[in-house]
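HUMAN: Can I see a protein plus its fold?

ASSISTANT:
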Amino acid sequence: MSETSSLLPPPDSPYWDANHKDHAQAVEEVRAWYVQHTADETGAPARPSLAAPAKKSLLPEYDPAHPYYDRYHPEHKAAVDAVRRAYEAEDPPPPFPEVDQLEPADHLRAKLGVSPPPLPPAYRESWDEVDEAMFLTWALRENFSASQTQAAMNWYARALVGDVGRLSTAREDEFREWAAKRFTPSQIETMVRYVRTLHEE
């Protein structure tokens, strides 16, 4: 990491995957970077400034025995989930435009370089292009690449067909696991919440 780098690595880093063989090393690299670049004049790690960006204070204080940093700790997953929820609170999803202000889905697809997801005819007929345009508008704001956007749409379409038109709650954890190496925790939770709104009674 350079001196101007964010404390947090990119979404495809082993840092975000508790089961990755290099997860512990990635966590240690973040900790070491933090200690090096936030030390005070005595060389001791400085406490985060109240003026520092909020995301820099979301990680627990480093302790190798802390469940967050110890991937083998029985409460490791719960600790990682707690950090994820903290990110959600700090970075809520952006408001979507009113429906009558949305660009047509085909225009947004062209901007992002994506295609409609592959669906059987029965599902294609019921595919809601307004819902799709909402997602694509957000994807543009998040600067998603074409491959990221297409992958998310295709995953949703496959899950929709697999669950016969209504996603089960069990799909959320499956999606989080699939998306962990492709998107940030905040982006993942935004997509989960959005899909929930599509399937509310």
The chain has two domains: 14-90, 99-198. The chain is about 50% helix and 0% strand. The chain has a mean pLDDT of 76.
